[in-house]
C-alpha cells in the first residue's frame, strides 16, 4: 500500500509556482476576505498568507466584522476587482448566515476567480474549456498524476455532490476518461457502488462513512473530508486502517488532500497573473 503524500507534492508545486512567479515583471497579487471570526477559517487564512510568502505572491487580507452587510462586502469585492495589482480574490467560506454566498461569489470578476467557484469557471469546466479549476478537485487530480494513477478506462466513484468538491471532481475524472458514478446521502447501496471503484473519492464530511469492506482490493482511495473524532483529532470519511488493508494507494488525513488544496490556490493565482500580464 502506497501513501499518497499531499504534503510532499504540495511543497513541490509551491516551489514550481515560486520559480515561475519570479519570472513575471511584477509579483502575482492575492486578496483574501474573511468575514467574522470562525476559528477554522482563521487558521486557513493564516496558512494561505504563509503559502503566499513561500511562493513569492503579494497578499492582502481583509478581516471584516461578523456584522458586515451584504452591501459593504459587495463594495469591497468591486473595489478589489478594479485593482490592477491584484490578480486573485478569495472569499473565505462559509460566510455568516445573513450574507448571500452565491451573490458574493458571482460578484468576483471571473478572471480573478482563483477559487474556481464563479458560474463562468463552473461552466468552462463543464464544457471542457480552459479556466480556473476548484482547488481541491484539481489537487486530487495532481496527486493521481504524481503517483501514476491514470483514470482512463477506470471506474471512479465520488461520494458527495457539493459544488466545491463532489461535482467538479466527477467532471475532472470524466474529462480524463474515467467512468464516473456520483453518490450522495440519498444513494441506495452505497457500499456496493464503492466496491466497484478503482478510484474512490470521498467528500461527504461524515466520519467513518467508508469502511474497509466498501473498498475494492487494489483501489486508490482519496479522502477529501476533514472531520474530528471524539478526541477532537482530525480524521476523514474513511476508516483509515481498514481501508489501507485493501487499497493499493490511500491518502492520509491530515497530510493528504488538504495541503494540495492550498498549493492549487497558489497555482491558480500564478495563472491569473500570467493571464493578466499576457492581456496587457
Structure in words:
It is a single chain. With 280 residues, the chain is of the alpha/beta class. Helix content is 42%, strand content 16%. The protein has 10 helices and 11 strands. It has helices at residues 6-21, 39-55, 70-81, 101-107, 119-127, 135-146, 166-175, 190-195, 240-244, 257-279, and strands at residues 2-3, 29-35, 58-64, 88-91, 155-159, 179-183, 199-202, 220-223, 227-228, 234-235, 249-250. It has a 6-stranded parallel sheet. Strand 2 (29-35), helix 2 (39-55) and strand 3 form a beta-alpha-beta unit. The protein is globular. The model has no long low-confidence stretch (mean pLDDT 96).
Topology, element by element:
Elements: E1 2-3, H1 6-21, E2 29-35, H2 39-55, E3 58-64, H3 70-81, E4 88-91, H4 101-107, H5 119-127, H6 135-146, E5 155-159, H7 166-175, E6 179-183, H8 190-195, E7 199-202, E8 220-223, E9 227-228, E10 234-235, H9 240-244, E11 249-250, H10 257-279
Parallel strand pairs: 1-11, 2-3, 2-4, 5-6, 5-7, 7-8, 8-11
Antiparallel strand pairs: 9-10
Helix pairs in contact: 1-10, 6-7, 6-10
Amino acid at each position: 500500500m502506497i501513501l499518497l503524500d499531499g504534503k510532499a507534492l504540495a511543497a513541490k508545486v509551491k516551489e514550481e509556482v515560486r520559480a515561475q512567479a519570479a519570472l513575471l515583471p511584477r509579483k502575482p497579487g492575492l486578496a483574501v476576505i474573511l468575514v467574522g471570526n470562525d476559528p477554522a477559517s482563521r487558521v486557513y487564512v493564516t496558512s494561505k498568507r504563509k503559502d503566499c510568502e513561500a511562493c513569492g505572491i503579494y497578499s492582502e487580507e481583509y478581516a471584516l466584522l461578523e456584522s458586515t452587510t451584504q452591501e459593504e462586502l459587495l463594495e469591497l469585492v468591486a473595489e478589489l476587482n478594479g485593482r490592477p495589482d491584484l490578480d486573485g480574490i478569495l472569499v473565505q467560506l462559509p460566510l455568516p448566515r445573513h450574507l448571500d454566498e452565491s451573490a458574493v461569489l458571482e460578484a468576483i470578476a471571473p478572471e480573478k476567480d482563483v477559487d474556481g467557484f464563479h458560474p463562468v469557471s463552473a461552466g468552462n469546466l463543464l464544457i471542457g474549456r480552459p479556466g480556473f479549476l476548484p482547488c481541491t478537485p484539481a489537487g486530487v487530480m495532481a496527486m493521481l498524476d504524481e503517483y501514476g494513477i491514470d483514470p482512463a478506462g477506470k471506474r471512479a466513484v465520488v461520494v458527495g455532490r457539493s459544488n466545491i468538491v463532489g461535482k467538479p471532481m466527477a467532471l475532472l475524472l470524466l474529462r480524463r476518461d474515467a467512468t464516473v458514478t456520483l453518490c450522495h446521502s440519498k444513494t441506495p447501496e452505497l457500499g456496493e457502488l464503492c466496491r466497484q471503484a478503482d478510484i474512490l473519492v470521498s467528500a461527504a464530511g461524515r466520519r467513518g462513512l467508508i469502511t474497509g469492506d466498501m473498498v475494492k482490493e487494489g483501489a486508490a482511495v482519496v479522502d477529501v473530508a476533514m472531520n474530528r473524532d471524539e478526541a477532537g483529532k482530525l480524521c476523514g470519511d474513511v476508516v483509515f486502517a481498514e481501508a489501507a488493508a485493501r487499497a493499493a494507494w490511500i491518502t492520509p488525513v491530515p497530510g493528504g488532500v488538504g495541503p494540495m488544496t492550498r498549493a492549487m490556490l497558489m497555482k491558480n493565482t500564478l495563472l491569473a497573473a500570467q493571464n493578466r500580464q499576457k492581456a496587457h
